Structure formats: structure tokens, C-alpha cells
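Example for tutorial group B:
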């Protein structure tokens, strides 16, 4: 059998297998020091081991390792994880987990590794169908195994408003009361949201909250009809289907700006991370002049509350300041406005729908999903280069890559598993691994060995016929 050290996903920068191997037993201990304690305890918990002031598994801080990078060495007698930062050590732990067999054998060798892009994200839409705090935590624990370091939560949309805002309680009591198909919906209290943020932080995940404005706001308008131009509350929106872009905040009313100021202030205060996502996509029901005025005022607020704004790439219509990040989601691989913006110093986050939309069907036979951006089997997701993909956009302008899981069709955690795995590991490899390691045949071979792990973790992944799954 090939060594597990040659099967790591995402592919490390350097892998040097050896003939050594380390056997983990009940007596194996994780050696903890002051500056490695947090990750050391996480490692021990993950592998079911104890910690101590001595031990065969050692974590240490080493300033010469690149940020978020690490070095991992496995010999017959010791396992050593070295990194400059806690995040780097956490990444080393994720690699180590992939090297351990069911019997506790760790294949020997040495790995040196660091990421290609800083931002390696997944997005979960909790508006179209609501997912509980525990379901989101489960998702976090799945995605960190592939060195994903950003979780973008799409918290509001036409179908439901999912985060408590203290000054505007009906947003959640009314606007959070249902979902696609008419089920009971739900929302996070601020206390629950803080718990989620803390959990994400403990997993070295930056959480990006998205409040989608000025469109995609039907749930808010049902709760507060004064935010519409005619003052009339629309009905709750529970239909399954592709309708988007039909709702808008009234950009001519001052109360709209009081509203978003309160919302953005509270969300900023709940979020330790640097980013606030303000949506801005598909605002087809917002007149152009109102859209531009609205987006600029919203951007001022985000800045006032100490955050950096992200918007879907339509945000460039409002000519935002260059610090604003545009999340590119369309199907075309050229967009002159995006290219022009990057020439002026804008940075881009790549989420091309025809490459990384996790809500697309794999094949015509897939039981759930859309197909408007095409069928996306594993190879479609894997075989492209974020550094050269968008015409006129240089790699330096790309902060990274993010795979959105829109949830019109995603009803429960089994659906989350099915749509996310095995595609997200392909996205993770595009975001982490050096381009020189890119090789579909080798990726298939490595990924094939991960199926049994997912099964053991209770994940209902899609067994794509493109992958020669190990059993
Ligand atoms: C487009 S991508 C949307 C979402 C839908 C998704 C379905 C984007 C910014 N907007 O509102 O859920 O397509 O695939």
C-alpha cells in the first residue's frame, strides 16, 4: 500500500517519504509548552491522546517557517510539528491527522508546507434553509481538515433573516420564521452567534458575516414594511425556485440608512475578523442611482465600524474605494470592469459559479442542485488556475478562492455533506497548493484514500465516478 504521506490533500509544497513509521498507542503523549498549549490540546483531543511536559509528539514554534506554514517530521520514535504561528501549527495538525491509519500507524517522512493564497473559503447559506449552531460547527470541523481558513455565512436573504439585531427584533421573530418550502426557519441569537464565532476562532477560521443589501431583503421588508417605498409589507417568501433580485430596500428613505447603520454596527461588534460582507448582488429591483448612493453610504458605515467591506462583484458599479474586496461570481472568465478595477489596485476573491458553486449538480442524475452554471463534477472544480483564470487580472490581485454553498435545495446536513464533499477538497487544493503540484491524475489518487475517512466520520459524501475510491 502506498504511504499515506503521499496522499495529503491539499498537496503540500514538499513531501519526503521515508521508510520509518511511528506507532501511536495509548501511552503516546503530546508534549505541551506555554506557546503551543492551545494547539497541543486540540491535537491530543483529536487523536484521543493525553498531554504532558514530556512526550513523543512535540509542537514547537520556529520563526523561520512562512506564515501559516509548518514543518512536520515523523520518525520511528517521534513526531515533530514546527511552525512560526499557532495557525501554522494548527495546519500541521490537519496534515498529521491525514497520516494516521485506523491502527494508529503514522507513515514516516518530512513535509514542508505553506499556502499559495491567504483566503481559502467556504460559504454556507443559512437563509434559504436554516442550519443550527451545531450544524455549522460540524461543517467547520469538516472543512478545516482541508486547511480552509474562512467561513462566510450568508445570514440574510429573501427567505429568512437569521441573526438577532437588538434594535430591530422583528427581523428574526417575523423575518426568521420560515424558509424555502415553508418550514419553521430559525435564527441565531447574538449569544449563539458569539458562540459560533468563538468556535470558528478556535479552529483558526475567520468568520465573515454577510448582510445582503440592498436587494435580497424580502424577509426584512415583511418584518419592517417602513423599509419599502410604498410602506406595504410583502408576503413571506417560501417558494422553491430561482427567483432572486425582486426585493429592495427603499434607497430614498432615511429610515433605510438608520436601519443598515444599526445592523452593520451590531454585526461589526459581534465579529472579531477584519471583514464585513454587504452582498450588493442582483439588486435588480433597486434603481441604478439609488444603488450607487446606497452602496457608498453602506461602505462608509463599514469603514466607520472598523471593518473592511466585501461585496459580490456588482459592487464595482458603485465605484467603491480600492480597499473594498469584490467577490467574483459570474460564469464568464472575462469581465472588463473587474480587470479595470484590479489595474487600479482593487483585490478580488474568486468564486466563479461555473467552477466552484457547490449548489450545482454533479451530473444530470444528481438528486439535488441547480444547473444554471453547468454540471460540476470533481474535475471541473479542480482543473483551472485561480492565478490566471480571469482575463486581465494578475495573480497578485487575487486574495484567494471561496466555494459558496447556496441552500435553496440544501435542506439538511446530509445534503451539506453531499454537495461539499468531494468538491471542497478540490477547491482547497487550488487555494493552498503551489501550482507546480497541480495534477489531476495525482489528485484523484490522493483523494481516493480520503473516502473511508469521511465514511468513518459519518459524512454522506458523493462517491463521484471520477475518483477510484479506496474501500
Ligand atoms: C445566485 S451568486 C445568487 C444566489 C443564489 C444562487 C443559486 C449570487 C451572488 N447570488 O442568490 O442562491 O445564484 O445558485
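The residue assignment follows.
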Amino acid at each position: 500500500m502506498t504511504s499515506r504521506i503521499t496522499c495529503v490533500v491539499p498537496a503540500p509544497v514538499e513531501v519526503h517519504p521515508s521508510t520509518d513509521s511511528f506507532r501511536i498507542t495509548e501511552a503516546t503523549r503530546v508534549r505541551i509548552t506555554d506557546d503551543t498549549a492551545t494547539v497541543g490540546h486540540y491535537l491530543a483531543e483529536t487523536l484521543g491522546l493525553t498531554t504532558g511536559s514530556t512526550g513523543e509528539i512535540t509542537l514547537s514554534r520556529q520563526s523561520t517557517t512562512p506564515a501559516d506554514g509548518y514543518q512536520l517530521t515523523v520518525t520511528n520514535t517521534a513526531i515533530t510539528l514546527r511552525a512560526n504561528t499557532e495557525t501554522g501549527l494548527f495546519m500541521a495538525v490537519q496534515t498529521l491527522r491525514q497520516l494516521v491509519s485506523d491502527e494508529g500507524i503514522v507513515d514516516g517522512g518530512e513535509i514542508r508546507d505553506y499556502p499559495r493564497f491567504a483566503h481559502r473559503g467556504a460559504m454556507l447559506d443559512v437563509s434559504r434553509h436554516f442550519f443550527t449552531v451545531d450544524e455549522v460547527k460540524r461543517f467547520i470541523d469538516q472543512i478545516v481538515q482541508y486547511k480552509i481558513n474562512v467561513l462566510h455565512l450568508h445570514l440574510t436573504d429573501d427567505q429568512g433573516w437569521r441573526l438577532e439585531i437588538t434594535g430591530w427584533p422583528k427581523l428574526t421573530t417575523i423575518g426568521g420564521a420560515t424558509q424555502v418550502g415553508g418550514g419553521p426557519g430559525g435564527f441565531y441569537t447574538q449569544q449563539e452567534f458569539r458562540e459560533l464565532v468563538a468556535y470558528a476562532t478556535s479552529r483558526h477560521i475567520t468568520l465573515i458575516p454577510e448582510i445582503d443589501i440592498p436587494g435580497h431583503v424580502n424577509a426584512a421588508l415583511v418584518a419592517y414594511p417602513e423599509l419599502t417605498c410604498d410602506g406595504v409589507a410583502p408576503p413571506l417568501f417560501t417558494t422553491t425556485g430561482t427567483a432572486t433580485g425582486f426585493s429592495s430596500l427603499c434607497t430614498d428613505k432615511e429610515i433605510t440608512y438608520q436601519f443598515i447603520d444599526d445592523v452593520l454596527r451590531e454585526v461589526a461588534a459581534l465579529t472579531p475578523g477584519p471583514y464585513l460582507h454587504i452582498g450588493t448582488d442582483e439588486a435588480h429591483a433597486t434603481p441604478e442611482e439609488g444603488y450607487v448612493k446606497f452602496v457608498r453610504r453602506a461602505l462608509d458605515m463599514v469603514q466607520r465600524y472598523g471593518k473592511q467591506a466585501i461585496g459580490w462583484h456588482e459592487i464595482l458599479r458603485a465605484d467603491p474605494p480600492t480597499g473594498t474586496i469584490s467577490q467574483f461570481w459570474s460564469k464568464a472568465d472575462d469581465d472588463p470592469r473587474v480587470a479595470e478595477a484590479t489595474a487600479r489596485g482593487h483585490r478580488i476573491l474568486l468564486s466563479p459559479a461555473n467552477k466552484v458553486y457547490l449548489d450545482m449538480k454533479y451530473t444530470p442524475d444528481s438528486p439535488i442542485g441547480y444547473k444554471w452554471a453547468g454540471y460540476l463534477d470533481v474535475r471541473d472544480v479542480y482543473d483551472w488556475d485561480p492565478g490566471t483564470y480571469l482575463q486581465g487580472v494578475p495573480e497578485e490581485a487575487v486574495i484567494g478562492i471561496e466555494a459558496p454553498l447556496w441552500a435553496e435545495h440544501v435542506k439538511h446536513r446530509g445534503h451539506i455533506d453531499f454537495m461539499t464533499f468531494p468538491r471542497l477538497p478540490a477547491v482547497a487544493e487550488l487555494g493552498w497548493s503551489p501550482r507546480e503540484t497541480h495534477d489531476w491524475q495525482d489528485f484523484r489518487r490522493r483523494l481516493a484514500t480520503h473516502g473511508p475517512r469521511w465514511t468513518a466520520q459519518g459524512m454522506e459524501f458523493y462517491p463521484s465516478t471520477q475518483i477510484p475510491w479506496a474501500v
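The two ends are 13 Å apart (CA to CA). Compare this with the pattern of hydrophobic and polar residues in the output above.
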